[in-house]
Amino acid sequence: MKVRYVLCLMLMSALIISCSKEKTDIIIGLNEPIQHDDFQYSATGFSIRKQIGENQSALVAAGNYYIVSFHVRNDAKRVNHPWDNTVAYIMDDAGKTYDNIPEAQKNLNMIDPFGWKQKYVTAYQSSDSTRFVFDLPKHPSKPCLMVRGQTLMGDFFDGGRFKRTKIRLY
Length: 170
Fold this sequence. Notes:
This protein is of the alpha+beta class. The chain has a single domain, classed as Immunoglobulin-like (Sandwich). The chain contains 2 helices and 11 strands, in the order H-E-E-E-E-E-E-E-H-E-E-E-E. The radius of gyration is 19 Å and the shape is elongated.
């Protein structure tokens, strides 16, 4: 009986601590991981271009293309990690969001192959990578890469930290 009481008290304490953590944004840099359950996401680099391709077939950005190299590592022991090209987005300092542009991403893959796929399944204990293409204004205010996802069991004790973590692209 006393063991149950102690376990219940410990569980309640852990719950209170996890719920009371500060909910502010976390800014990290390139090659620093965003931890989401057993999965780690990172931006390994980025470049800025006005267009993708040459001549008449070039895709020209309304502002500038931000091309972000993206890496996924699956540390799970038995579970594969399915994800797609909508997993990441860019948010600026004003809260405006920018999604990956599949047409530009495919065009980039044709001129500079990186193994584009429509959907990815990263096997357990392995990793994958891709490159995303975002069209941002010419002078965005502190753009940061963020990831989408459902809160999973491993996110419980850190309060879903992955939803508040931003990778600095400035």
